[in-house]
Amino acid sequence: MHTSKMAATLAVSIFFSSNLFAETIYQSGSLGQTGVPWQAVIDGTVPGTNVNPDVFVGARFKIDQPVQTTRIGGHFYGHPLNPSNEFFGALIQLENAMDFPNSDDLSSADVLGVTTLTFPSPSDEVFGELSTALDPGWYAVVFGSGLFGTSAVGGALRNGVDNGPQAYIGWQPGVGWFELSLLFPPLFENHRFVVEGTIIPEPATSILLLLGAGSLFTMRRRSFARR
């Protein structure tokens, strides 16, 4: 293989290999103790927030670099006898730090992607695959049921520790979208919502990868020529 082709091949390989490892793009809080049974939440021993056809919950977040998401999820629990355990997760584009989704049924164009997750019983951290390109700006990750073919009843645990102040949002029929952290402080803190993905390198970074790979093969070629 010619040196230039080898350099280009290595550069492409390095670029894509670096994107195979998902990073945590956003996490609202730390993961608390898992394995929490449904009854412990019902009894109030461990705090939780309903996630069902009448209650959606999520959080706003901001990113400063282009991102390709891979999956979204968090710490959830479901009823052990629930015949349907599927709920949805969605990524929604926002205009600013105070914005909400544009539709109650998440049918508007600001909804960038939706995935399906399964409520665990007892509680655990679960994810749904979701590949979506995000530009720098404000977004919301939202979880609920009753849409996109889901109907499960479950909830999100609140037994972690928030990563600083969080803008948790919710939705209910007749109320619409609202900010949990403003309407019910501090009752709705310490959720665990996560967005994973890969940061897309800036164009300059990609050029440096190409130049670096070219230099590497040039040096190796000269080394072999001296032998």
Any descriptors?
227 residues, alpha+beta, Jelly Rolls, 2 domains, seven-stranded antiparallel sheet, six-stranded antiparallel sheet, 4 helices
- For the record, the CATH architecture of the largest domain stands as Sandwich
Structural class, please?
alpha+beta
- Percent of residues in helices comes to 10-25%
Number of strands: 13
Question: Would you kindly provide a written description of the structure presented here, covering whatever features stand out?
Answer:
There is one protein chain. The chain has helices at 3-18, 38-42, 180-183, 203-226, and strands at 23-27, 48-51, 56-63, 67-78, 86-94, 111-118, 124-129, 133-134, 137-144, 154-157, 167-172, 176-179, 193-199. It has 227 residues and is of the alpha+beta class. The chain folds into 2 domains: 1-19 and 200-227; 22-198, Jelly Rolls (Sandwich). The strands form 2 sheets. Strands 1, 2, 4, 7, 8, 10 and 13 form a 7-stranded antiparallel β-sheet that branches.
In short:
The chain is α+β, with helices and mostly antiparallel strands.
How is this fold's topology laid out?
Blueprint: H1 3-18, E1 23-27, H2 38-42, E2 48-51, E3 56-63, E4 67-78, E5 86-94, E6 111-118, E7 124-129, E8 133-134, E9 137-144, E10 154-157, E11 167-172, E12 176-179, H3 180-183, E13 193-199, H4 203-226
Antiparallel strand pairs: 1-13, 2-10, 3-9, 3-11, 4-7, 4-8, 4-10, 4-13, 5-6, 5-9, 11-12
Helix pairs in contact: 1-4
